[in-house]
Write a structure and sequence with these properties.
The protein is an alpha+beta fold and about 625 residues long. The strands form six sheets. Strands 18, 19, 20, 21, 22, 28, 30, 32, 33, 34 and 35 form an eleven-stranded mixed β-sheet that branches. Strands 12-11-17-8-9-16-13-14 form an eight-stranded antiparallel β-sheet, with no helix packed on it. The chain has a seven-stranded mixed β-sheet with strand order 2-3-1-4-5-6-7, sandwiched between helices. A hairpin with a 2-residue loop joins strand 23 and strand 24. The termini are far apart.
Length: about 625
């Protein structure tokens, strides 16, 4: 057993402060020089992560505390990226469970903690944001204990240390887990007291409570790959944990992959050309790594998460492959066949789209891609709308152009019955919105499971809703709660298919011609509904240009111009005043479209269109169409 190493993951619900805590740990561990410039949320390096304010990909870093190296894995907090959490938990020996001092344990807290406890990992509970005006650390700590007991934690896992912290300000104190002294009495009260505090109590708890790796250097070399990256200089990089032996640069190794149709695993021989450990925001190149290290290496071109790396000709068996939860939503990605095809995108062919999708699944264990009977259509399965939206947004930023369908749930057969996924929905809403939200959830096939009022004027309600009922739910939820409500979901399991669920009630306004929109046409169409386009924009036949105020589709001429004559009309011309168009973001378009519609995604535009563009060939709006139609 190594005493100079600790491997931990930071897990929590979204926006509870994981990445902020990692920032503070890196700064206080002396990772950066005094003159070195740093930024907030340093671990969120992807453009979409910084724009959305969430962690999408799990990332590794490392700090040195005295003689001990601490490897830290920052994990996503959103339920759609649960696959990232599941794969990274195989790399560590303990977890820091962050819980907001006001919100308490939320759905993703339960999900990630259940996975961590199931793997036997040792927890440290960090009650974060204790400086909030509505903080209630005593109640939250009790809820955390209740959650541990509910998830069947063993006695050693229940004896977790408790840290009260404000990650943003970089301080923490060691609390009494369930002692006689209430948490409020343990917290500093003055600015002077807070100014003297650091994260040292948290660092001490990590060294004291997180076990050292038990991997033996005398055991055969086995490295389980958990993540994939790329470097312009050394090529494809693989990250994983060395579970046994020593690994040296320029060593000949073999990749043991998935089982083939003949029952034997695929293999690939190669040589370790580069070897790294994690330190701060960079990788530290080394010559040798030991059992228990989290390492990054280059030398194998076809390595994917789940593969085991062993020494060539050693005969060492592969480790069990990483397994993650099943996907619950599917979308069809297809070639853009509209009139504007190829005008805005760089990669537009079915081969290019196919190669990009299959490249995605080489590094993303929770995404699946299936080929369909039609060569230019691909079925992509994921864990949720946000995960699929991130994939689509990433592709369009890379220059891809395509059409995508409305998300549809994955239905599977269990004991001869069609089963669909069901999710727990937890909302935190104003008291006045409980009735309207509950009514809306009921129309989506959901039912209330519990309710409490953690703070005055606000109510936390838990529902059980089929995943189908949550497609397109967020937009109306924001409207009902006037943008104040918060919601989160988690997969609860599978239930018998619930039959038809209320879909979008409004119809679409569809352009009948190819051309450019005019202010005159838009002005006269505004009373019919809300417009998605403004004047001077290019449209085509079959393109959805607005939402109809009624439940039927309406074909409109949005390029019509005012007829000019040499006869002056009595009175004055009416003043044309246009309402700003309702611009759809990708996620909003995914929620809004019906099954007979598609989203045309290009690097410069997001358009909604009908599957069948020609008005004369288009059937009336149907509710019963399926994803594969």
């Amino acid at each position: 057993m190594r005493t100079d190493l600790r491997n931990i993951a930071i897990i929590a619900h979204v926006d509870h402060g994981k990445t902020t805590l990692v920032d503070a740990m890196l700064k206080q561990a002396g990772t950066f020089a005094a003159h070195q410039a740093t930024s907030d949320r340093m671990m969120d390096k992807l453009d979409q992560e910084r724009e959305r304010g969430i962690t999408i990909m799990a990332k590794n870093t490392g700090i040195v505390l005295g003689d001990v190296r601490v490897n830290i894995v920052d994990t996503p907090g959103h339920a759609d990226f649960g696959g990232e959490v599941e794969r990274t938990l195989h790399m560590v020996d303990g977890v820091l469970l962050l819980v907001d001092a006001a919100e308490g344990p939320l759905p993703q807290t339960r999900f990630v903690l259940k996975k961590a406890l199931g793997l036997g990992l040792k927890p440290i509970v960090v009650i974060n944001k204790v400086d909030r005006g509505d903080a209630r650390p005593a109640e939250v700590l009790q809820k955390v204990y209740d959650l541990f007991i509910d998830l069947d934690a063993d006695e050693s896992q229940l004896e977790f240390p408790v840290i009260y912290a404000v990650a943003r300000d970089g301080w923490a104190i060691r609390g009494e887990s369930m002692g006689a002294v209430p948490p409020e009495a343990q917290l500093p009260t003055s600015t002077q007291q807070k100014g003297k505090l650091t994260l040292k109590p948290l660092f001490d708890a990590i060294l004291e409570h997180i076990p050292a790796p038990k991997d033996e250097e005398t055991a055969p070399v086995q490295l389980l790959v958990n993540a994939i990256d790329y470097d312009d200089y050394v090529g494809r990089l693989a990250t994983g944990r060395l579970h046994g032996g020593k690994l040296t640069k320029k060593t000949d190794v073999t990749r043991v992959g998935e089982l083939g149709k003949d029952g034997s695993p695929s293999t690939e021989k190669g040589r370790i050309t580069a070897l790294y450990l994690f330190q701060g925001m960079s990788r530290l190149e080394v010559e040798t790594v030991k059992a228990g290290d989290l390492v990054c290496f280059a030398g194998l071109e076809n390595v994917v998460p789940g593969d085991t790396i062993v020494l060539t000709d050693s005969g060492t068996a592969a480790l069990p492959r990483i397994s993650v939860g099943e996907p619950t939503l599917a979308m069809i990605f297809s070639v853009n066949d509209g009139p504007f095809a190829g005008k805005e995108g760089k990669y537009i062919t079915s081969r290019q789209i196919r190669d990009r999708l299959f490249r995605e699944i080489r590094g993303n264990v929770s995404i699946r891609v299936l080929e369909t009977d039609t060569p230019d259509k691909f079925k992509v399965l994921g864990r949720g709308e946000l995960q699929l939206a991130v994939l689509i947004e990433g592709m369009r930023r890379e220059g891809y152009e395509m059409c995508v369908s409305r998300p549809e749930v994955v239905v599977k057969e269990i004991d001869g019955k069609n089963m669909e996924p069901v999710e727990g929905l937890v909302v935190n809403i104003p008291e006045t919105a409980v009735g309207p939200v509950t009514e809306f959830v009921g129309k989506r096939g959901g039912q209330m499971m519990g309710m409490e009022s953690p703070t005055s004027g606000w109510t936390s309600v838990e529902y059980e809703v089929p995943t189908r009922g949550l497609i397109g739910f967020l937009g109306m939820f924001r409207t009902i709660t006037r943008g104040e409500g918060q919601m989160s979901t988690f997969l609860k399991g599978w239930i018998p298919y619930q039959g038809e669920i209320e879909a979008r009630q409004a119809g679409a306004m569809i352009s009948t011609d190819l051309g450019r929109t005019t202010p005159y046409a838009i002005f006269n169409l505004q009373p019919r509904g809300s417009m998605f386009v403004g004047p001077g924009e290019d449209v085509y036949e079959g393109m959805v240009v607005g939402e109809h105020a009624r439940d039927n589709d309406l074909d409109i001429n949005i390029i019509r111009e005012k007829k000019l004559t040499n006869i002056r009309a009595a009175g004055r011309d009416e003043n044309i005043i246009l309402t700003p168009p309702r611009r759809m973001r990708l996620e909003e378009a995914m929620e809004w479209i019906d099954m007979d519609e598609l989203i045309e995604v290009t690097p410069t535009a997001i358009r909604i269109r009908k599957r069948v563009l020609k008005q004369s060939m288009r059937p009336r709006r149907r509710k019963a169409e399926t994803l594969d139609d």
